[in-house]
């Protein structure tokens, strides 16, 4: 007989398709298995025989079987775990480190392996001197009650109020979980200690003008201390948010700043005047010195020239005194006579001097004055 002949008249029984149908079928099988009554057997006579009552041990066995099945299902369910993106799983086997798994679906031994999930992409933040109440575009901060964190003493014995933040993330999940008991508190304690030391070694004015440099130094030292402790974290940012004097001394501090600004303004004005006057005076002094050097060189050269000329004339005079004397006289007269307006010649035979008519000159100064006066009168 074929399989189609053996099929019931209403068709082939439909099998479960979805997980819900499989669970429903499993529950129905359990209910059928733990039912205390059995279906009656139908004999040839058509009369049913009553079922015999089961023993108590059979009920206990069924209960134990049910509990065992539940434990098996729970163990199977606990053997698989899923890690979200950005998470890693640290698996311990019997208390010893076994492996580190990345995001996705993984298998572990039930009741033997222990899983710890760590988010390694989350940026963790610690705030000092303030707390963020409603972060976002319109962030609000609360600074009251955190003076013990922010009040510090500078090198010039000034009290300063410093608020800063530290951002970090997990770089080594195993060390983060098991090397330090409370990594967050360790980050806070070490950061506060380093910041107080850095601020305490600098003056107040230097801190106000170099907060980025001080934050970089604090970040470097904080990372070194955490690496020494094997905390398993990487510092991303150390930023000084606000640096101000305490509220009770702010008026006095503002007055000091105003006085300091006035002092700097006066110093700048004095330096401006100095830069205008001093270079000019130095230039004039250098000019006078150079002119004096030039005059000295000219006089020395002129003296050398006169000396050489005198020696040359003396040499010629020794050779021909009369000729040299006559030549010197004529050269002198040739130089003087053009500048003389009137020349008088005195003769021994004459009782009065005779004027010499200067024919080479076009007009004498006296005649020119006379002609100019006559011209003016004619006009």
Q: State the order of secondary-structure elements, H for helix, E for strand.
A: HHEEHEEEEEEEEHEEHHHHEHHEEH
Regarding CATH, which class of the largest domain?
A: Alpha Beta
> How much helix, percentage-wise, in residues?
40-55%
Count of runs of 4 or more consecutive helical residues: 11
- What is the second-level CATH architecture of the largest domain? 2-Layer Sandwich
Overall pLDDT: 79
How big a fraction of the residues is strand?
15-25%
What are the SSEs and their pairings?
Layout: H1 3-6, H2 19-33, E1 41-42, E2 48-49, H3 56-78, E3 80-83, E4 87-93, E5 96-101, E6 104-107, E7 113-119, E8 124-128, E9 131-132, E10 141-142, H4 147-150, E11 151-153, E12 159-170, H5 173-178, H6 183-200, H7 204-209, H8 211-229, E13 233-244, H9 250-319, H10 321-336, E14 343-345, E15 354-356, H11 365-378
Antiparallel strand pairs: 1-2, 3-6, 4-5, 4-7, 8-12, 9-10, 11-12, 12-13, 14-15
List keywords for this structure.
alpha+beta; Tetrahydropterin Synthase, Chain A; four-stranded antiparallel β-sheet; 20% strand; disordered C terminus
Describe the structure.
The chain is an alpha+beta fold and 379 residues long. The chain folds into three domains: 61-119, no CATH class; 124-244, Tetrahydropterin Synthase, Chain A, CATH 3.30.479.30; 249-359. 51% of the residues lie in helices and 20% in strands. The protein contains eleven helices and 15 strands. The strands form six sheets. Strands 8, 11, 12 and 13 form a four-stranded antiparallel beta sheet that branches. Helix 6 (183-200) packs across helix 8 and helix 9 (250-319) crosses helix 10 (321-336). The termini are far apart. Mean pLDDT is 79; it is low at 1-7, 36-51 and 363-379.
């Amino acid at each position: 007989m074929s399989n189609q002949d053996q099929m019931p008249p209403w068709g082939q029984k439909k099998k479960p398709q979805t997980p819900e149908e499989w669970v429903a079928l499993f529950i129905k099988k359990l209910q059928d298995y733990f039912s205390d009554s059995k279906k009656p057997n139908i004999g040839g006579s058509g009369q049913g025989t009553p079922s015999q009552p089961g023993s108590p041990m059979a009920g206990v066995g069924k209960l134990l079987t049910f509990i065992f099945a539940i434990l098996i299902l729970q163990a199977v369910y606990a053997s698989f775990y899923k890690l979200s993106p950005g998470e890693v799983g640290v698996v311990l086997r019997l208390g010893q480190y076994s492996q580190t798994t990345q995001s996705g679906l993984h298998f572990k031994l039930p009741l033997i392996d222990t899983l710890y999930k760590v988010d390694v992409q989350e940026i963790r933040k610690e705030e000092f001197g303030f707390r963020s109440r409603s972060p976002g575009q319109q962030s609000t901060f609360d600074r009251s009650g955190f003076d013990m964190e922010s009040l510090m003493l500078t090198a010039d014995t000034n009290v300063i109020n410093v608020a800063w933040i530290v951002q970090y993330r997990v770089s080594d999940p195993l060390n983060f979980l098991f090397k330090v008991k409370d990594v967050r508190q360790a980050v806070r304690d070490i950061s506060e200690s380093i910041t107080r030391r850095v601020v305490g070694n600098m003056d107040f004015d230097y801190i106000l003008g170099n907060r980025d440099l001080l934050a970089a130094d604090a970040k470097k030292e904080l990372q070194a201390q955490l690496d020494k402790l094997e905390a398993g974290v990487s510092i991303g940012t150390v930023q000084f948010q606000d640096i101000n004097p305490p509220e009770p001394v702010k008026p006095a501090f503002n007055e000091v700043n105003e006085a300091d600004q006035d002092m700097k303004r006066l110093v700048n004005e004095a330096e401006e005047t100095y830069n205008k006057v001093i270079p000019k005076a130095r230039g004039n002094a250098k000019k006078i010195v150079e002119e004096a050097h030039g005059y000295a060189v000219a006089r020395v050269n002129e003296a050398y020239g006169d000396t050489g000329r005198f020696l040359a004339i003396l040499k010629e005079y020794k050779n021909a005194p009369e000729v040299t004397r006559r030549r010197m006289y004529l050269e002198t007269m040739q130089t003087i006579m053009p500048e003389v307006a009137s020349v008088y010649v005195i003769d021994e035979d004459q009782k009065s001097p005779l004027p010499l008519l200067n024919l080479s000159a076009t007009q004498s100064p006296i005649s020119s004055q006379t002609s100019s006066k006559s011209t003016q009168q004619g006009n």
